[in-house]
Amino acid sequence: MVEVATSLLNVKKEEVIKTLYNLEVAGTDYIQIDVMDGKFVEDNTTEKMNEYAEYVKQVTNLPLDIHLMVKDVESYIKSYLALDPYCITFHIEACKNKKEIMKFIDLIKESNVKVGIAISPNTPIEDIYEYLPYIHKVIVMSVEPGKGGQEFIENTIEKISNLNIFNYENGFEVDIEVDGGINDKTGKECTDAGANILVAGTYIIKSGDYKKAILSLK
Q: Would you say 117 and 91 are in contact if contact means Cβ atoms under 8 Å apart?
């Protein structure tokens, strides 16, 4: 079954509480918090996303899905663990080596929070394979991380398919989540290739009908 995570990246501050209520009623499965530090990517959403994450915990029962696009991974992990999220995902490109990656995985799992690793479009999918026994989710970025509203990068489909095959052949049950440029067309391409979680922001938020948009992805 396909699940949907809604990104709040382009939601206006004065509309966030109403938007969260409407998303919960519409049936989104997760709220994704896109944390950017202005270093790993150009934009800085740290303050805004901290505030939005607090709202999610206060006004909904929806699971909080944290996507860290930051250089100082450890500090941000510790900060968001305090909010008892469902999952924290960090970028493989932000890590110096395997030892550091395993350190971050252990840090998250110690708090009984699920762990995800994200890969950017230019990172080979094979770079993630050795970590699959230790994590719960891979976010395959289908746009360059850092900004909402970008167009879907087509070679993402091959990466999803290869990851799905490797997952299956090795008996792993790691979720494959796709983030960036997702709509009803690209979403179907992703799920046909093996993805089981779709992240959408613009497509849902600007749809005028959250429930219809979410159902079209599912």
A: yes
127 is an active site residue: no
pTM equals 0.95
pLDDT tens-place string over residues 189-203 = 999 999 999 999 999
Q: Which helix (H) or strand (E) holds 179?
A: strand 175-179
Which of 179, 184, 192, 209 is catalytic? The answer is 179
Q: Is 179 a catalytic residue?
A: yes
Dist CA 207 CA 210 (whole Å): 6
The beta-strand segments (E) located in 14-148 are: 30-36, 64-69, 87-91, 114-119, 137-141
Set 34, 37, 184, 209: catalytic member: 34
CB–CB of 60/86 below 8 Å?
A: no
Q: Which of 114, 96, 106, 89 is nearest to 32 (CA)?
A: 89
Instruction: Give the pair of three-digit tokens for residue 189.
Output: 């391409």
CATH number of the 3-217 domain: 3.20.20.70
pLDDT tens profile 82-122: 999 999 999 999 999 999 999 999 999 999 999 999 999 99
Could you tell me the CA-to-CA distances from 202 to 29, 74, 173, 188 in Å, in that order?
16, 29, 29, 17
